[in-house]
Specification:
2 copies of one chain form a homodimer.
Chain A (H helix, E strand, L loop, with lengths): L2 H15 L13 E4 L4 E7 L7 H9 L8 E6 L3 E7 H4 L8 E3 L4 E7 L17 H10 L4 E5 L4 E6 L3 H8 L4 E6 L2 E4 L24 E2 L5 E6 L8 H9 L23 E6 L2 E7 H4 L16 E6 L11 H12 L4 E4 L4 E6 L3 H13 L5
Parallel strand pairs in A: 1-9
Antiparallel strand pairs in A: 1-6, 2-4, 2-5, 3-4, 3-13, 6-8, 7-8, 9-10, 11-15, 12-14, 13-14, 15-17, 16-17
Chain lengths: 364, 364
Amino acid sequence: MHGTDWRVWFALEEERKEPGRERDHQTTTMDLHILDHRLRVTSISKNGLENYTHPLIKLIFLRNRTRCKFFSLTETPENYTVVLDEEGFKELQASEDLQVEGSVWLPLNVVSNGNASSSSQAVGVTKIARSVIAPLAQQHVSVFMLSTYQTDFILVKEKDLSVVIGTLEEEFDIFREVGGESVPVHSPCEPNGFQKNGKEALQPTVHPVLIPLNQFCVMSLDPDTLPAIATTLIDVLFYSNSPKEGASSAPSPPELDRVKFFSFSLIDGYISLVMDTEAQRQFPADLLFTSSSGELWRMVRIGGQPLGFDECGIVAQISQPLAESDISAYYISTFSFDHALVPEEDIVSVTAVLQQQRKEPAAS
Amino acid sequence: MHGTDWRVWFALEEERKEPGRERDHQTTTMDLHILDHRLRVTSISKNGLENYTHPLIKLIFLRNRTRCKFFSLTETPENYTVVLDEEGFKELQASEDLQVEGSVWLPLNVVSNGNASSSSQAVGVTKIARSVIAPLAQQHVSVFMLSTYQTDFILVKEKDLSVVIGTLEEEFDIFREVGGESVPVHSPCEPNGFQKNGKEALQPTVHPVLIPLNQFCVMSLDPDTLPAIATTLIDVLFYSNSPKEGASSAPSPPELDRVKFFSFSLIDGYISLVMDTEAQRQFPADLLFTSSSGELWRMVRIGGQPLGFDECGIVAQISQPLAESDISAYYISTFSFDHALVPEEDIVSVTAVLQQQRKEPAAS
């Protein structure tokens, strides 16, 4: 861990705990950091996971054996999405079970570093909906979101970086992390050289959504206690689809209206876990922690057909109405679909908003 | 665990702790149990191990997910020897990295159940050298030995079982464990129907031996604390041949005159570990335990060329001189070679005995 990251993370932690200190995007000089990771977005087929047990266990549990600093694994009913840096990526042998998105992706991170007061209590992707997500959608930049317990990573394609900088530099001081240093960056051309789209109406495709019944928790764990949950985590990640032989009772039938979703990330030494309450019960209660409010989250899965990686505005489709209603949300993109997690008590209003949106797509 | 096993194991534990209670083989009615496991002896190539990470981690750590009750994994410089019952074996997919010995093997176990005094303090294979190992060698029965922290398993081929029973029933009360019951067994024919070899001289091939410099420990672990060493054990078993990326200093060069040897077994709920002192230092000191004497062991590796599975008398070649000198020994057969572990303080005399034997093979 280099010093800069600690500062960034500390600021973020504070922000999550004290949302009142968060800056309003309209008054801001917030910082945007382009982190020092070159990421690949990959997918492992359901049946192929066991062939990747060896490298994945190394990346998750054996920090001494890898230089990988950015690792995320998310199980969905369709596949396992693995997002990881180049050091991690070289551990994954090519096979017919591994799909690799062609781009290099760079993670962006918004850092609030001041004392400004905010009108919004919402956290997560909601907080950056107007300042980051909407402008990028308007400039036709596709994003891949990865919310964790600690922060929200906005992944953009490396080839889009100059457009990203040109789009966001009015709103943010932009820094690029290079070997532990934060280097200010500006649009490569003169200030007006970047040709922005005008304030044209943003009309993203409205994708169908699915709202499963599971309740989710977003949790973290002291990395030093990761070994203590290793066998449970291995069981849940790698063996949850095989039957329990020792169980005396018959396995409970899969519930309709629930969706398998489990996400683990280990990024710059920080662990984040997203799981439903059923998975949570398998872990020792005293090691995983969540925010003091201990709230539960419901999922909105976005997409009827796999979304691909080129369409822009998908995150905006969800985050804008959430921002209008000031509803917090985590947002996790995967290889096939996107997933927003909203507070359980807000799911009814979120559902209403999204149904309304399907009927009459809103102009921005 | 069924009740019978508990009794057997308890008796064995007592015996290990109080060698004075052990019966002398000449005065005995010791019991021999044919355990209720049908075993396969397999070998995984060094480079192929990672392809078997998924099933092996399941067999080692996830007792709820498997019915396998007999599992042993031993790393040697040549390969990984995996001995396991049929429930475990069906987890291992065929591949060019997996060699499978053709026979079904049955584990035998000697149980001392009485109060007779003994002239011998030695434990392990030494204790059964005269009563089991020598007679089986004389009847051309090949054995595959597997000593653990708790006991010594003598594996014989299922097809040799009637010869084994005929050979050993004079010396032992023989029981077959069937579904938790101990059923007395006798030679299938009338007492004299089994044609024994006479008291002809036993002259096994004398194999070259290798005596590496490592010091070994034979240890155990409460199965409930296995999760606490999971990441260390996974690291040692599955990743010890890949470099440590995080290590600041260069890896130490492999020492000449040392041999890689690490054995883990989980048999009927009991864990046994054999490792050298270098591997031991990677484990938390408070979880693994060894006998109160805490002694260290030196290895005698038997065989210049891989031994195969048909030759008989290999174990006898080592265990008889040890019995004559009353030196304890663990004995672990692997796919390629056999390994005896003798107390560190006895290695000089053992070496002398074996050198003598090479010059003039002893008649029994």
